[in-house]
Records
---
Amino acid sequence: MRQYIKSIVELNDNPKSRVFAYIVQVLILVSIISFSYETVPDLEPGTRKILRAIEVFCVIVFTLEYLLRIYCSDKKSAFIFSFYGIIDFLAILPFYLALGIDLRSLRALRFLRLFRIFKLMRYNRALAHFSRAINRAKEEILLFLFVTLILIYFSAVGIYYFENAAQPEHFSSIFDSLWWAIITLTTVGYGDVYPITVGGKVFTFFILMIGLGIVAIPTGIISSALTKSVDKKEED
Amino acid sequence: MRQYIKSIVELNDNPKSRVFAYIVQVLILVSIISFSYETVPDLEPGTRKILRAIEVFCVIVFTLEYLLRIYCSDKKSAFIFSFYGIIDFLAILPFYLALGIDLRSLRALRFLRLFRIFKLMRYNRALAHFSRAINRAKEEILLFLFVTLILIYFSAVGIYYFENAAQPEHFSSIFDSLWWAIITLTTVGYGDVYPITVGGKVFTFFILMIGLGIVAIPTGIISSALTKSVDKKEED
Amino acid sequence: MRQYIKSIVELNDNPKSRVFAYIVQVLILVSIISFSYETVPDLEPGTRKILRAIEVFCVIVFTLEYLLRIYCSDKKSAFIFSFYGIIDFLAILPFYLALGIDLRSLRALRFLRLFRIFKLMRYNRALAHFSRAINRAKEEILLFLFVTLILIYFSAVGIYYFENAAQPEHFSSIFDSLWWAIITLTTVGYGDVYPITVGGKVFTFFILMIGLGIVAIPTGIISSALTKSVDKKEED
Amino acid sequence: MRQYIKSIVELNDNPKSRVFAYIVQVLILVSIISFSYETVPDLEPGTRKILRAIEVFCVIVFTLEYLLRIYCSDKKSAFIFSFYGIIDFLAILPFYLALGIDLRSLRALRFLRLFRIFKLMRYNRALAHFSRAINRAKEEILLFLFVTLILIYFSAVGIYYFENAAQPEHFSSIFDSLWWAIITLTTVGYGDVYPITVGGKVFTFFILMIGLGIVAIPTGIISSALTKSVDKKEED
């Protein structure tokens, strides 16, 4: 009996296990869409009831799945404290906590339901690759993130020096200028703050000519780490 | 006789076939420009008549071309149901459908005329390369598109959490926040929505530092797949 | 005598030729800055006189340089009709034309003075590399520029379909929508036009996810052609 | 005694030297945050006093560190005029200068305190790599920066020609147009200035299709120089 359930719950070539995995993935997506839909303002009471029913249904299935996985695993405590065991637990925890506590203080708790997305990692090779690639390039990313942060800080100090007098409402302190620096150096450029003095514009010119190459480095490291990890997969 | 027409209709070293191909390409472009011009508001009745005449002329030529291609092909049904056979058919279909139906309901139908652009693929090696490269990297693109979508979703949930109270008109729900997330992470940054709270700005800072590398991955895969396909072509 | 002048006018290890090259380059830059300065509105008559004097001085030197180069060259007609010979001629032509014609109609002519920038190519290896690299990758660039243009056109048609009814002033025709398409797909995102309907936003989402990789290709080809050309230089 | 202090002050495997290095790094960060915080407008007098106390404390420690480093070094004058010796001196100089001069004229002097960031270079391998990589690729960067500047200048002249008549307040001279050119070609796109004429939009279209590849080159050179330098590190 336990072997039979195990062959279904754990993803393998068994067609039944594929159906099971498919159902769980669909429910995760349904649960996430329902979570997003709850944030739409002025929902009708009828809609709220449906969303609540979907949530209850999802939690029941996820709880059953969690219990089955514990039941199937050879070493129960090992599963419970494994990465996926904790994720499975956190995915249902907020619901049961909410039953006991007053609903008003639950705003932050509600967001914990999003841990369910990580349940998808079990089925998605890309996500697993991704977290491994990040892990391997961790040191490099941190080192160059540091260089990037220093550049952003220098840009903020520079623009503060040039623009503070002309636009005290937008560049009131170096902290405010940091917002400009990050939005400009990543080339997002919302247009909510931008230099208007000649000095500030010339400074922006130089920062952009030099800075784009530097800000692109952590990005490039992540990309190349992922590409390497994909190439390695293909070799296997 | 059939062999002679075939040598003209199918692109080869025959100079006449080059002239034929050139005429068809020019007519496709004329037809697309005419289609675009029709959307200009408040056209004079005279202009409308000219555009209509161009359209009728193009359709007649494309119909003749279609019939000639059927006539020339060795296995008629094989051509009709081939990729290019269907494209050639769809390129003239809207016109003949429009003759039978009331003109008011034709808005969506009108856009079907754009299938003519795909007729250009027959003559453009880059487009053929492009669709083959996309096809080969399909699985990878889908996997990392999924990672990107999760990142975008997380950004949307985060910014909703920080900005909803301060800007309920711009970040009214997670669906609205998704718009901000995609416009920011692709660095388009229209400036129609942007965070104004300190928490939202700090969150944007971290999302941008980490996220740009991830959003760039599907883009990078397409680019590298195309580059490989170009290099392979050069080796031939 | 002619050999002596030639050793000065043509750039080589001779220190005098280096000084000559340096003077010409400085004068080109002075002449370009002076050209830019003339466009500043409401200049004082005194400033105008100085700018005019600078222009006259530059043209005299460039004319002398041109005559010396003709005098030095072994085959006079070969130099006159060579790339640099024509550039040298075009750099002084607008001034002499302006002496004969009424000054009012000279707006377009004035811009011809910018041909002087190309005179710098004689001294700048990067510029020479650049034009050679572009030349070599010409066919590829054109092929993929075509794919990019089709993508931009499709984006414009799509956004026109979604946004025309909601924003007839910004998306009045497909030509207007093309402006949105190029500004969005290059991620410039001025924020002067952006979709406001749900359909338009979802469409933008998909276009951005797919399109960024495609628009980046001509850019990538230019970059890689240049990098190859730089590497080759280093091997020499 | 001197050997003992030297083993602490200079970073090595000695655990005490690690603690010393850690304290100095924390103080640099504290000093930079305190510097940034001073720029916040309308600080309470109490906060000002605390910030002043932090500054005095940091300077005392940095002065002690400087004196110890001189004391430890085998050739005193060699250290004082070395890169790090000068940086250490500049990091404390503004404070002592400020004691002697009237406080009003110190705005520019205040920014000299930021030299302290460079003190971090002693401890951060990434920063050292970075400056070495930039140094090695210096010539290439300058050559292509020049090509980029010419492209930006041409874009500015072009847009001035198209937009000056329609928007004399935004494109009043070529210098003003340069601001548009840099913000557009780096794809920042604040949206403070953008073309509104058909000619200007078509020109922007072509500039963007061609220009993005060129502006990306100096950026690409910095990135690749850094990547090479990182790979070399890994080989060691």
---
Amino acid sequence: MRSHYCGGINESHIDQEVTLCGWVHRRRDHGGVIFLDLRDRDGIAQVVFDPDTPESFAQADRVRSEYVIQIKGRVRHRPEGTENAHMATGQVEVLGYELELLNEAATPPFPLDEYSDVGEDVRLRYRYVDLRRPEMLNRLRFRSRVTSYLRNFLDGHGFMDVETPILTRATPEGARDYLVPSRTHAGSFFALPQSPQLFKQLLMVSGVDRYYQIAKCFRDEDLRADRQPEFTQVDVEASFVREEDIMNTMEQMIRNLFQDLLSVELPEFPRLPYAEAIRRFGSDKPDLRIPFELVDVADLVANVDFKVFSGPANNPKGRVAALRIPGGGELTRKQIDDYTNFVGIYGAKGLAYIKVNERAKGIEGLQSPIVKFLGDDVALAIMDRVEAQDGDIVFFGADKASVVDEALGALRVKIGHDLDRVEGDWAPCWVVDFPMFEEDDDGKLHALHHPFTAPVSAEELQSNPAGALSRAYDMVLNGTELGGGSIRIHEEQTQQVVFESLGIGKEEAREKFGFLLDALRFGCPPHGGLAFGLDRLVMLMTEAGSIRDVIPFPKTQNATCLMTDAPGEVDEKQLRELNIRLRKSAKDQQEGSN
Amino acid sequence: MRSHYCGGINESHIDQEVTLCGWVHRRRDHGGVIFLDLRDRDGIAQVVFDPDTPESFAQADRVRSEYVIQIKGRVRHRPEGTENAHMATGQVEVLGYELELLNEAATPPFPLDEYSDVGEDVRLRYRYVDLRRPEMLNRLRFRSRVTSYLRNFLDGHGFMDVETPILTRATPEGARDYLVPSRTHAGSFFALPQSPQLFKQLLMVSGVDRYYQIAKCFRDEDLRADRQPEFTQVDVEASFVREEDIMNTMEQMIRNLFQDLLSVELPEFPRLPYAEAIRRFGSDKPDLRIPFELVDVADLVANVDFKVFSGPANNPKGRVAALRIPGGGELTRKQIDDYTNFVGIYGAKGLAYIKVNERAKGIEGLQSPIVKFLGDDVALAIMDRVEAQDGDIVFFGADKASVVDEALGALRVKIGHDLDRVEGDWAPCWVVDFPMFEEDDDGKLHALHHPFTAPVSAEELQSNPAGALSRAYDMVLNGTELGGGSIRIHEEQTQQVVFESLGIGKEEAREKFGFLLDALRFGCPPHGGLAFGLDRLVMLMTEAGSIRDVIPFPKTQNATCLMTDAPGEVDEKQLRELNIRLRKSAKDQQEGSN
């Protein structure tokens, strides 16, 4: 129904007849002439109707914003002085002589002007209008280009696109499953996959050798800002590989992607051991664009009377660290109070600091509420250790190590942005040498990645599980984890040891993961892989403010779809077919738990 | 960990050192030498270990079938007379001098030999072993090539890959939904999509203009042979298009696919109106390779005493049709009895026939139990009408039209295969001019496609809905519906009329499809599309015997996964979080329905 897209009209079409279709973006009357800005996926073209063609002029006179029309006309230069250098089609216009009204449109619920500040709830309710805004449509298109690019890269590297089931078995990997009641098996439930992890490992047992899938994954968790109940993973697995093979291929893929789609040349990805990342940045996904680092000072404060510092300094699970902000001496009392509240979110009970006014003056040159508690020698030793300079501020964290890491790690990034000290646009890295497990407060071990991650040493896994390192690797970009993966366990015996370390007994392992254990016995090759979070990758690449801006039909943080009003109620009949019923009252719940 | 794939070794590698990884497909000892057939995704290579390299020979001596190994060796010609012309690598072998055992393997649950006849249940339980069989692995790989090909075609034609939600709202389109209880909204449920239909229409309202997605769809139906609870659709939609645009693009895509992946030149797709397809073939997905057609004879038998024929002949909803099988006179009594049972599946109460022994003899030349009921004139008139020839058999169907269509339509295909009368390999067509609705026995209208299909004429939709034609089109190949689509309704008013025709009142329409009706008001372009069943397409192209053979991890007809044992039971705690509980007894069910 069209000869060209609106956005594609240019001087090469001058004097040609064109047929365009689209939406009336704007309509102006000027000097007895009607100007329509006609919009489609590719851009906007100016179409002019003058009274010389009375029929189409009358039609054009009727149209309003967002009406859907088809026009026929001839391309011509815009009159001199009326060109628009900001528009791709700004040198030309179409003199319209036919206009067919394809559909009318009610006044949109909000203006499509990209600068208008519309509440997200309204945008989500009328998502189909919101997506019309060029910036949203361009994000969708960019996402499509990203998936297409990644697929072609992986196809070209011998990876096979294989689909794995959505209706599958609940295999607790950590998060809560979405469940689907079975009609044919009363009382049984499918689970939606948290990832295709086990299936892709089974494909390696099958000899698929190189697998990928752009896969929907599901987690029924309370949503944080950048989480969605369903999200998309670029999932990759390969056999007969070592860490280097996967990491090199994936790094190349991401570097090529940035180069070809954004013309960005990413640097080589440095490799940062987990322990170093935590020590220097308080985070296993450090934003390396921020030029501040944590420095341990526990040894210096182990013997001070100030219990706030000496307590954690003498606790094997404690940490005392300093964070020097060059030039941060100018921070006001108000700003420091705000940062104190900020670290409180992460459980820090306060935020000690020392301002460095003039180091040459020794202890006199420091300004701080805590120097008197530390003693002069210790304070000066800390200044030496952090290499403080005049005009700096040094913040402190002293608590359980996890609290200090999170609090100072987050503070580091926040101050970096607040003071505009972000260096460079893109700072990728690999984080490696993760521990197999983390220990909770009860001394129970949890898999840091997932229970199928191979250990560096099977011996150490046996003798000292809490200290054993894994063959996992995460790709981090600008403080966001883009993807994570590992070499997997390919031997039944090792898998059993990991299950035992996690407190999963033989019987439970058989019950939950019997098919995996079987598969490992029937000739499983060494294998490993990685999964990228596609939504986050696209969000970073498009500099979108939220993950919801790169997902066509996202859910709210309350896990609802405002447009379709999902989830919704269902008929009693349907519930009966599924052999379930609602617990309506507390009394019902009581009975149900018997 | 490898330098080459096993299947890639050939004479160009002679004297080169190679490292191969894979599974021991077969092991033979011959003249003091060990021969290992080493298998990977690409094929099989013969590796030879002789006692001159005692260490690797000892290793090779230990390996058994399906062990996973890595070998290093040198490629050489096979000794003269031992070449294997049936193998891609049959001219060469690898003289192995290092062997690393990567994993042992228990004896497989069934031999991987492709000729072994293993029950499907065992194959599904050990799917990861089943998929090792080269024919299965090749199907997975072919499927991957198909999706990659289709994606590249659609990318190249300006279609954008856009993801639509899996957790969505129950919008009854016909089949039963899979439901997902919401934890955060007690008593509410998400539904898994039966197709992305409404979302893709909303994307057209957004101006996406050309959309595609290879999308998972879900239907909780009792499964027929070629159905799965989750299946994959190649889903396409475009704006500002007419039937021709979609049909031409999609036909081109499928023709290119067959040409490039199978070297098959499909003929141009003839277009068959729905009424003609039913009349000639008894089916709206006719297998045009079968050279038999139904012929109406109701007018000839309207006045006979034989009520079995004259009843349906005089019933406006009845049909009397003949199916001539050239050369079918040789069918035995036993075969005819079997066909009588066969049409019984479709509700036919019998299968009348006339054998044509010698037409020149007139009525004497016919052999049939029914001629005496029809009378000579009618019998001979029928013979004229069907152009019967000596040696033919003519079958009859007389019943409600739907029964005759289904019974003779299926019989036509069955006999065509039984008598080896299938002509040609590939017979595609388009079926067009579908009615908007079909009427059930209660006179209630149901959408023949779905309620969003546009009518050919809005006037006829109003005045005579039961007779109105739609702008739908189905692509049919060899009697299988490959895909179906239509131009959609883009005006709210027309959509309301369709809902009314289906007995969906204003209130119910607003409640269930309010967001669609809203969207149609805000400037919806004319649009249409199509969806292909990917599983069936791949099944046809690979000549697989079942849809389950082209799905990596299929469910049984009972909707279970034998490998993971899904669906399974879940904790009481999970049910409580979801605000549901099981109905355990009839008594429970009684209470629940209050």
